[in-house]
Each structure stands twice: as structure tokens, then as C-alpha cells.
Amino acid sequence: MPSKSSTRIAEPLLGGPVGIHLGAAGRRFASAQATALAAVLGITTFLALALQGPCLSSGYEQPSASARMCAGPLSTAFLGDVNPEVLGRSHSGAAALAPLEARLVDLFHLFTDDVSVFMVGVLLLNTAGIAALGAGLLVLARFRGWLVALFASPLILFTLGSTLDPLALALAVWAVVLFVGTPPLRPRGWLAGVLLGIATFINPLALLVLLALTLAGPNPARGLKSRNPRMMLAAATITSALLLVVDLTAIDRIIHWYSDAVDGGSFASILVMAELGDGSVWAPLWIIVSAGVVLAVTVSLYMVRRTGLDPAVAACLLIGGCLLLAPGLMPWDSLWLLPFIALSIRRWWVLIVWTLAEAVFAVAIQLGDVTGFEADKGLDSTFVALFTLLRLLALVLVVIMAGENLYRRGIRGATVTAAPPRRGKEDHADEHDSQRTGRLD
Fold first, then answer.
1. pLDDT at 174 over 70
2. Residue in 205, 136, 214 with CA at minimum distance from that of residue 164
3. What is the rounded CA–CA span in Å between residue 49 and residue 55?
4. DSSP 8-state class, residue 184
């Protein structure tokens, strides 16, 4: 009986063992790649700023602001307006803003009533947030090529002037960077908690990032060191408590969200557009269902934690599960999925399908608002409901693919020393041929 398999015998004829021609990219390649990706992100951000240009000159007047794709909750609230009377949309103004967004509106009202000046400040904050988001992802991503799906995303194009979510998402991503402690940065759990506590008062989805880090910290995926989340949780709790004391209106806003939570992009909004019930009836039900999905995903992740959890995949599953049945799913909510999808999913066709669905919905929801001002113009609610349903199906696909990649490493980390793999008799017989590639992944 031969001691070598046929594949081992044929290796010299086929070019050698698997991976013998692979090598780590040098610093010059990594720098050139980061520069190219930063340029792509810069172009996307420039286009997003250019999209806001016509509205800055016209004062965000409706319906032209919605027709030009640059209307958003912040500009609407600053003008003292509310969303148009369109089926499936929330009808709130300033009361629907997040606490920190409302404080920003009040701060600018102290010295100006010009909405263009206010929106210039918003755009500057969000541009800084997008730049910080890109830098954080360049630190986190092990396979940078997939970041093109994020840096060229139309979600940045359509949400830069809507809310402060780009800034909040940047805080959340850097919280992941600081918690994981990717070289050359040292882990700073308390600072990660502070950043997530601040981001929560812009969008509560930051709590799901906190939950993902809490679950993945003690039992990380292969290649990441174990982290204790206690300091992060304590810092996030203290920061949230301080912000609640400073802004006493936060509790009132939470109560208002509970009663007027149905907004575009969700299954609940489709039911309202079909005139099957009122938003005040569906809002509590879908909030409870969405919370139940988050609880189920959390339990599932906790049960499989011993095999190692990737914090990016955990965050993608938690946020995706929450948004899937949430009563409102606007484009700036989907923005929170964007970095974690790029870190978790390794299939271009999935990313392309989801990106196209989000882009079509972002256009449809703005054109649907136009009908609230001029009934003979804009997009009919039937088509808005159709594009909403297609977008939700794309979100289901994203959640499934993220679950498939549950055990795959998508971010960097300090490598944990591991014992060499066990070898069989065939490997011992030809050990000198495979010794050079034994550590290649």
C-alpha cells in the first residue's frame, strides 16, 4: 500500500501544495488600497453634498425638497413642519426627533432661523461622521475589498442630510474598534461604552451594537482575544443616565415614539397603506414583535457562543432582526446595517441586491411624500408599498446570509496563539512539502 495519496503524488505536477503561491500583502499595497477606498468614499460624500445643494439655495421648500431627494426629519423639524399626510408615514415633526437631534435644533434656533445655515452645520457634522466611519472600517476590515459595497453605497447619498445617524454610526463603529483593541490601538472598554451611550440618544439601534459586543466579547471568533464587557456596560449606563438627567424630554419622546412609530419601509406601513388599521393600533404590536425577534436572536447567539462569535456578524443579525419587523424602517435606519454587512457577508450578488433595493426605496419614499403636497404628482402609494416589500425581502436575504457566516471571521484582532493542527499519517509522510504553508488560512 502506498504511504502517499494520489493528490500528494501529483502536487509537484500541479504547482505544489495549496496556498504555496499565496503571500501577505505588503505595506505599499495596503496603503494604496486604503487610499483608493478613501477616494471612493470621498466621491460618494461629495455627491451627497451636491444633492443637498439645490435645497440649500431654495430653503428646503416642499414639495421641491422631496422631489429633489434632499428632504429629511431635521430640516422639516427646523422649519416647524410635519411629514405630509401620506398613508404609511409618521406624521410627527420635532417631537419625533431623537433627543440629541432635538437639542441641536434648539441650539441653532438660538441664533438663526435660516434652515440653510442649520443644514450646513448638519452636513459638516455628518461629513465628519462619514470620514470617521471610513477610517474605523479600514482599521476593522480584514478583507478591505468588500468595503467598496459600503463606501460607494447610495445610502450615504440619500441620508447625509436627513438625520445625525452617520455621526452616531461612526461612534458605534469606533466603539467596536476600541472594544476589540485592533493593533496598534489598545482596548478601551470604558471609552467604547461612552461612545455607545452617546450614540443611543441619536438612534436606539446603538444598544444592539452594545448587546452584540457584550455577547461576543467573552467568546470571540478565532483570531480575536477575549474581552470583558463589564466596564463597557458600566460606562454606557452612566453616560445614558447623565444624558437623561440633562435632557428631561427624552422620556416624553420615547412615549411619543411608542404611539406614532409606524413609518415607511416596514410591514406595518404596508398595512396602513392598504388601509388595514391605523398606525396607533399597529405601532405597539409591531414594537412588541420586533423586541421578541431581538430576544430570540440574542438567545440563539448565547447558545452558540462557545464556538466563538464574530461581533460584526452578531451586530448584523441583531440589527437586521430588529429592523425586519420594526414599525418603521427608513433609509437612515438601514444605514446602521451597512458597515456590519460589509464585514460579514462575502457574496457580491447579495450586497448588490440589497443596495439596489435600498436605493429604489429611498427614491420611492421621497416621491411618495410629494403626493401629500400635490396629489397629481409623485408616486402612488401602491408602488411605494411594492418597493417596500421588495426591500424587506432583500433584508430577509441579508439576515439569512449573515447567519450563514456566523462562524466566519470578518474583522481584525490580536491573534490568539493556537496549537498546530493535528496531522495524519499522510501528512507525516510528506511533512517537508507542507511545512511552509501550514499556517496559511
1. yes
2. 205
3. 11
4. T
Cα–Cα distance for residue pair 338/316, rounded to 1 Å? 9
Sequence-ordered list of residues with C-beta below 8 angstroms from that of 419, at least 6 positions apart, any chain: none
Mean pLDDT computed over every residue of the chain: 83
30 CB neighbour count, 10 Å cutoff = 13
Question: Phi/psi of residue 141, each to 5°?
Answer: -70, 130
Contact 155, 338 (CB under 8 A): yes
Cell (9 digits) for 67: 422631489
Q: What is the largest CA-CA distance in the chain?
A: 89
**In whole angstroms, what is the distance from residue 425 CA to residue 120 CA?**
68
Single-letter amino acid, residue 96: A
Q: Residue 347 — pLDDT band, cuts 50, 70, 90? A: confident
Helix axes 250-259, 230-246, angle to 10 degrees: 90
N- to C-terminal Cα separation, the chain: 31
Q: What is the C-alpha to C-alpha distance for residues 345 and 333, in angstroms, rounded to an integer?
A: 19
**pLDDT (tens digit per residue) in 136-163:** 999 888 778 788 888 999 999 999 999 9
User: And the C-alpha cell for 390?
Assistant: 421588495
| pLDDT at residue 220, rounded to an integer | 81
Of the pLDDT bands very low, low, confident and very high (cuts 50, 70, 90), residue 374 is: confident
Asked whether residue 50 carries a pLDDT value surpassing 80, the answer given is: yes
Place of cell 487610499: 35
Cα gap 7→422, rounded to integer Å: 19
> pLDDT tens-digit profile of 115-140?
999 999 999 999 999 999 999 999 88
